[in-house]
RNA sequence: GCGAGUGUAGCCAAGUGGUUAAGGCCCCGGAUUGUGGUUCCGGUAUUCGUGGGUUCGAUUCCCAUCAUUCGCCCCA
């Protein structure tokens, strides 16, 4: 019986690893260039971290976590990374680092869900977190960074939706108002919405059930939603954000019903969605989580961040050009070939050769199948005369030169 | 967790209740012992996801199971 990869997991193979590397390299270059530093936290954490951090009312915590007990300690494979980063922030005393602190991460996340398009049990996220800035300028920076990254990946046709769900104070008022309006007809809502009614009535607003949608389609409710129920501070924050987005020429849609599913969000929430992604169309989600550091035992620190799903990005990203080898050494003198190969490699020229010492024609064939830029021919003729032939496999032109000049040829003509 | 579709080689895929299961790509070998990417020839499935049932006989029909895809839900 052949052992297969667990349901909802995928191998990243030699055929597609270059796509991952492409995305990761772009992320690293862009984020480091913006003074974000990479952070790597454990793949598993104490289960309690997610209960307290992500929230008990969320599906993620309630039914999607991979939890196991090891020596009476309950551990969980991380379903998302903000909680872990915040934990590390507190534990390592990062509040003493120069503020604001800007972090980015990449890596696998785990959620026990039914796999479908754009949804795996092990999936990968790239994300950023910015600590220490209260003002909306931080939200704007982080959103702009997301747009820049998507742009780097040549992804277009996306739309950005933003909302402000208020701070704990004004949100409570809002919740109460919604409850009051909805309460009389509560029986007619779907079972999920009945649960949401007690746990988090905001989530009722983006229910996709048609009946619920109709029930919520009342003038009274619209008025509440569209009125700026949020307090002055939150409202100003939202105005400032919109202002910055305008300055940055970022198009956005205000979606008053946008509610992120995780409990830690405050004020700004946003989502970037793509077409052609089926039901799982969110490629980026994030927002502000001013209360989380304190909630996890640190001192109050405002923060904002986002995460992107790499598999989803990949689904809408134009496939980048694969990595190719620059030189392929063709020779039937294996000793000399070896030396030449490693000389080229140590000079930064990606090089390969035929380990089986096959016929000349086969080696050349291999070179062209690997789509090498050059065949570096070191045959009997060359050895006799102390030269090397460099053949450009695209143009089919070749020249025979002394060995010392080989790097000149290869480096000069490729640029 | 619920509903629906699919499952033939590494990949794409035709096919039928009955002796040897088309074809294409990739890969390998040869034509071609120093000039490739074109062409030509040849090779690669004791077997049709797995287990069971119906049948004289199943890859084909039935059941189960697993995997996968799509939708619900949720999220990135």
The Rg value, from CA coordinates, equals 28 Å
Count of helical stretches = 16
> What is the top-level CATH class of the largest domain?
Alpha Beta
Strand content: 15-25%
Percent helix: 25-40%
End-to-end distance = 51 Å
Which term fits the overall shape? elongated
Q: What class, by secondary structure content? A: alpha+beta
The fourth-level CATH homologous superfamily of the largest domain is Bira Bifunctional Protein, Domain 2
Strand order of the largest sheet: 1-5-6-11-10-9-7-8
Q: How many strand segments?
A: 16
Structural descriptors:
single chain; alpha+beta; BirA Bifunctional Protein, domain 2; Rossmann fold; 2 domains; eight-stranded mixed beta sheet; 16 helices; RNA-binding
Question: Could you walk me through the main structural features you see in this protein, from its secondary elements to its overall organization?
Answer:
- This protein has 415 residues and is α+β, with helices and mostly antiparallel strands.
- The protein folds into two domains: 17-167 and 230-316, BirA Bifunctional Protein, domain 2; 327-414, Rossmann fold.
- The protein is 39% helix and 21% strand.
- The chain has 16 helices and 16 strands.
- It has helices at 17-33, 47-53, 59-63, 82-91, 136-152, 168-182, 191-199, 210-216, 219-226, 232-247, 292-295, 310-316, 334-346, 360-369, 380-385, 406-414; strands spanning 37-38, 44-46, 66-70, 73-77, 101-110, 122-131, 158-164, 253-254, 266-274, 282-288, 303-309, 327-330, 351-353, 374-377, 387-392, 398-402.
- The strands form three sheets. It has an eight-stranded mixed β-sheet with strand order 1-5-6-11-10-9-7-8. The chain has a five-stranded mixed β-sheet with strand order 13-12-14-15-16, sandwiched between helices.
- The longest helix is centred in the N-terminal third of the chain and has 17 residues, at 17-33.
- It is elongated and about 95 Å long.
- The two termini are 51 Å apart.
- The model has no long low-confidence stretch (mean pLDDT 90).
């Amino acid at each position: 019986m052949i052992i297969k990869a667990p349901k909802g997991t995928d191998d990243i193979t030699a055929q597609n690893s270059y796509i991952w590397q492409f995305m990761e390299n772009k992320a690293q270059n862009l984020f480091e260039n913006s003074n974000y530093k990479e952070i790597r936290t454990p793949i598993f954490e104490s289960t309690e971290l997610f209960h307290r951090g992500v929230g008990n009312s969320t599906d993620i915590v309630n039914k999607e976590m991979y939890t196991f007990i090891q020596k009476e300690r309950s551990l969980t494979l991380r379903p998302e990374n903000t909680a872990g980063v915040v934990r590390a922030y507190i534990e390592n005393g990062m509040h003493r680092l120069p503020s604001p602190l800007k972090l980015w991460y990449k890596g696998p996340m785990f959620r026990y869900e039914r796999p479908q398009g754009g949804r795996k049990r092990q999936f990968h996220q790239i994300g950023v977190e910015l600590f220490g800035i209260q003002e909306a300028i931080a939200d704007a920076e982080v959103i702009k960074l997301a747009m820049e990254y998507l742009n780097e990946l040549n992804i277009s046709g996306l739309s950005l939706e933003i909302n402000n769900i208020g701070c704990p104070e004004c949100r409570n008022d809002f919740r109460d108002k919604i409850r009051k309006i909805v309460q009389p007809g509560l029986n007619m809502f779907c079972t999920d919405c009945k649960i949401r009614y007690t746990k988090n009535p905001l989530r009722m607003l983006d229910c996709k059930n048609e009946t619920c949608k109709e029930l919520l389609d009342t003038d009274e409710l619209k008025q509440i939603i569209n009125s700026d129920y949020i307090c002055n501070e939150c409202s100003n924050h939202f105005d400032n954000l919109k202002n910055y987005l305008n300055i940055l020429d970022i198009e956005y849609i205000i979606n008053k019903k946008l509610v992120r599913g995780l409990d830690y969000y405050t004020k700004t929430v946003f989502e970037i969605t793509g077409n052609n992604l089926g039901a799982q169309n969110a490629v980026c989600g994030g927002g502000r989580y001013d209360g989380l550091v304190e909630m996890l035992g640190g001192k109050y620190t405002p923060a904002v961040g986002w995460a992107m799903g790499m598999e989803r990005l990949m689904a809408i990203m134009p496939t980048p050009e694969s990595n190719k080898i620059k030189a392929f050494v063709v020779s039937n003198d294996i000793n000399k070939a070896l030396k030449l190969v490693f000389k080229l490699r140590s000079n930064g020229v990606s090089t390969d050769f035929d380990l089986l010492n096959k016929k000349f024609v086969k080696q050349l064939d291999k070179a062209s199948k690997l789509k090498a830029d050059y065949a570096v021919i070191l045959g009997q003729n060359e050895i006799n005369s102390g030269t090397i032939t460099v053949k450009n496999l695209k143009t089919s032109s070749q020249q025979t030169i002394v060995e010392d000049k080989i790097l000149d040829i290869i480096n000069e003509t490729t640029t």
